[in-house]
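User: Could you go from structure to sequence for me? I need the amino acid at each position, not a summary. Structure tokens:
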């Protein structure tokens, strides 16, 4: 029986990147649908759950992707609400790579280290990757500070995280170098830079002089990088007394995690692979 992955997203064209990755992970067939509307989800799900019974259901799975994470989250909720009893298939959520990227980022930081009671700053932390990375760092035992250029936005996201995810994160406003210095002076040990491509968030002078700082990781692969003085290929490189992880090193692990997650979908028909379960897969890998 062929392993069929149904790819759903709200973007008008389904991601070529995610489809190729699915094939590389061992899917025999990818049925990709872009521009999916909420009212269309139920019929698509019925096609997945009523065609193969019993053990055969594990050979069908669903991937929720797309660049618009909030829209993808709505598709995910509708899909899960459509399942009933044993009529379900395994599902992976990774819109805009948010879960696999956050899992790879935090695994780079955490592997082989004790993070309990460490202070971590997530720069540009109000986006999908930043929120997930902050959550995972809290679960690893860190005291986490989440930054935005607008304090109100950081406060809003931190409140949402506490109410909906159950984690407490401290909001901070980071607009200029003085804000960075003020935050680092609170004894920050870890920085996870989660900004948009080509946006500089941290100057080398700031991180090089921060005595408490131990580890910096940046997911931005487009110049200027999020962290000045780093290279995208840094993979545990020590510079200025800090351990650095660049976007390519993180991205290589992200791809391994993505493929492993797709493979795991076909093991059973009742899995929901979200940021927590995808991170659990990442922790089994060599960072």
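Assistant: Here is the amino acid at each position, in order:
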């Amino acid at each position: 029986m062929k392993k069929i992955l149904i790819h759903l997203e709200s973007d008008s064209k389904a991601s070529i990147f995610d489809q190729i990755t699915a094939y590389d992970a061992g899917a025999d067939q990818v049925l990709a649908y872009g521009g999916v509307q909420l009212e269309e989800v139920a019929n698509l799900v019925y096609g997945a759950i009523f065609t193969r019974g019993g053990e055969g259901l594990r050979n069908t799975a669903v991937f929720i992707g797309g660049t618009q994470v909030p829209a993808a989250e709505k598709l995910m909720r509708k899909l899960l609400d459509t399942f009933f009893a044993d009529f379900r298939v395994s599902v992976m959520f990774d819109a805009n790579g948010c879960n696999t990227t956050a899992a790879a980022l935090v695994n780079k930081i955490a592997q082989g280290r004790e993070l309990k009671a460490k202070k971590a700053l997530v720069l540009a932390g109000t986006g999908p990757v930043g929120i997930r990375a902050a959550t995972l760092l809290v679960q690893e035992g860190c005291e986490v500070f989440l930054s935005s250029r607008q304090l109100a936005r950081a406060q809003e996201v931190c409140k949402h995280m506490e109410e909906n995810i159950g984690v407490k994160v401290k909001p901070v406003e980071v607009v200029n170098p003085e804000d960075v210095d003020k935050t680092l002076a609170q004894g920050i040990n870890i920085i996870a830079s989660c900004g948009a491509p080509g946006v500089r968030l941290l100057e080398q002078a700031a991180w090089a002089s921060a005595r408490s700082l131990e580890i910096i990781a940046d997911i931005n692969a487009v110049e200027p990088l999020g962290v000045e003085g780093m290279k995208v290929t840094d993979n545990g490189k020590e510079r200025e007394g800090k351990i650095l992880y660049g976007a390519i090193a993180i991205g290589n692990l992200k791809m391994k995690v993505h493929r492993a997650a797709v493979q795991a979908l076909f093991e059973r028909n009742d899995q929901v692979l979200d940021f927590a379960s995808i991170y659990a897969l990442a922790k089994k890998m060599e960072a």
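One structural detail worth keeping in mind: The chain is about 40% helix and 20% strand.
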